[in-house]
């Protein structure tokens, strides 16, 4: 018995996107919205074609800093999440610190990073790391914390050590939480990179949009926003595909299926 995805579900995202762009276009025309206030989508896409070279250059830089910062966040978040989830002592000691760190607006630390490291790549990487680190650490810790005490008692009675339980039961149990955090954190990493680029960089999509807005090139600003959104969507679905491969046993069905 195989499950088949209805065609409408495949088409729905594209229908929604084209519907939003169509409504945006019609609203700008109907209300005669000036281009420097809200450009029409057709104008934005024309601008994207016109500035394809600079957009490609700056988006590549943003993607680079985002991926590096996100990779560091994954490594640090997993290690800290394991420590917090596996040890009640570490949990009670570090969890309030993590919450306090996450409450700090990351844009507020960018000027400090400029003082420490200067203008360039490093502040963008650190900001991407800082803004995407917390969801990963918390979700990994939560996944480990959901392990039932009764199951741990049974495994210990069968001779399993604490390390065996962590590696062979705890880690697989936390994978759905881990991948859920990745899909959220990677989009936040883009936010961190762009924030840093608008404050402390001479390259990247954030810098390009800042320069464009200062020259009232609003279509170019919206072109940059669309490029960032597209990169975020691609990264999200990339991790969603990996999640489906590795944790299909735990993934909730989010689509209606037809049974042949």
Q: Quick gist of this model?
A:
The chain contains ten helices and two strands; from the N terminus they run βααααααααααβ. By secondary structure, it is an all-alpha fold. It has a single domain, classed as Orthogonal Bundle (MetI-like fold), CATH 1.10.3720.
The SS-based structural class is: mainly alpha
Q: Whole-Å distance between the termini? A: 6 Å
CATH homologous superfamily label: MetI-like
**Strand line-up of the largest beta sheet:** 1-2
CATH class category name? Mainly Alpha
CATH fold name: MetI-like fold
Shape: globular
The share of residues in helices is: over 70%
Largest sheet, strands/sense/barrel: 2 strands, antiparallel
What is the string of helix and strand elements? EHHHHHHHHHHE
Regarding quaternary structure, how should these chains be classified? single chain
* Mean pLDDT value: 83
Instruction: Output the radius of gyration.
Output: 22 Å
CATH architecture: Orthogonal Bundle
How many helical elements? 10
Low confidence ranges: 254-260
Number of domains: 1
- Tell me the fraction of residues in β-strands, as a range: under 5%
The number of distinct β-strands equals 2
Polypeptide structure, described:
With 260 residues, this protein is mostly helical. The chain has one domain (40-250): MetI-like fold (Orthogonal Bundle). The protein is 79% helix and 2% strand. The chain has a two-stranded antiparallel ribbon with strand order 1-2. α3 (52-86) packs across α9 (205-214) and α8 packs antiparallel against α10. The termini are close together. 31% of the residues are buried.
